[in-house]
């Protein structure tokens, strides 16, 4: 999980690459963080818990400039090491709470994934689970940011599922990085529910919606 400075063997922060100083705080005592305290402080925790189509929805952070840059380095510049930098303070909670769940990751474009050599959401999910389902996929290249509202509705026609049968009667966590229009999430939920999982919850890393109330 750590990258090391070869001279000192001191762990380096995955984000800023500076040595992680071991300050005697409760946080560093209980968790061997892969990022430094000053990078950690730039995340804006939201911990929103609400519902989406009657399914429990948890959103961890606000989509601030720091998060946007970090996500671009990971997804756009293929910095795979950063997969472990997104879920740090919630790592223990997520790995415990979703221990017996199948983590169903939202799909990203197959062509982009081939260039990257990894599936972004699956990489981040691997920081808290080893039971990851990657059967949701996009049938054609589709960039949500380039689409009009009507175009975004069409995303429902390009997302599909394979090997969904393995989700039957399983506890499922649907996981995505950013929630935008909600149409991707809605389609993923439809496809997964078709296989009647025992239960389903949603965890999203970050939202641009700043009106959400912090309620836990
Ligand atoms: Zn740092």
What does this structure look like?
The chain has 216 residues and is α/β, with parallel strands linked by helices. The protein folds into two domains: 1-41, no CATH class; 43-207, Rossmann fold, CATH 3.40.50. 28% of the residues lie in helices and 23% in strands. The protein has helices at residues 26-30, 37-40, 65-75, 91-97, 110-116, 120-125, 149-153, 155-158, 183-193, and strands spanning 3-4, 11-12, 45-52, 55-62, 102-105, 132-133, 136-138, 159-161, 171-179, 199-207. The strands form three sheets. The protein has a six-stranded mixed sheet with strand order 3-4-10-9-5-6. A two-stranded antiparallel sheet has the order 1-2. A hairpin with a 2-residue loop joins strand 3 and strand 4. The chain binds zinc ion (ZN).
Concise summary:
This protein is an alpha/beta fold and 216 residues long. It folds into 2 domains: 1-41, no CATH class; 43-207, Rossmann fold, CATH 3.40.50.
- Per the CATH scheme, the topology name of the largest domain is Rossmann fold
Succession of helices and strands: EEHHEEHHEHHEEHHEEHE
CATH class of the largest domain: Alpha Beta
Query: Mean pLDDT score, rounded?
Result: 87
**Estimated structural class:** alpha/beta
Structure keywords:
216 residues, alpha/beta, Rossmann fold, 2 domains, two-stranded antiparallel sheet, 9 helices, 10 strands, 28% helix, binds zinc ion
Q: What are the SSEs and their pairings?
A:
Layout: E1 3-4, E2 11-12, H1 26-30, H2 37-40, E3 45-52, E4 55-62, H3 65-75, H4 91-97, E5 102-105, H5 110-116, H6 120-125, E6 132-133, E7 136-138, H7 149-153, H8 155-158, E8 159-161, E9 171-179, H9 183-193, E10 199-207
The chain binds zinc ion.
The site of zinc ion has 8 residues, from helix 2.
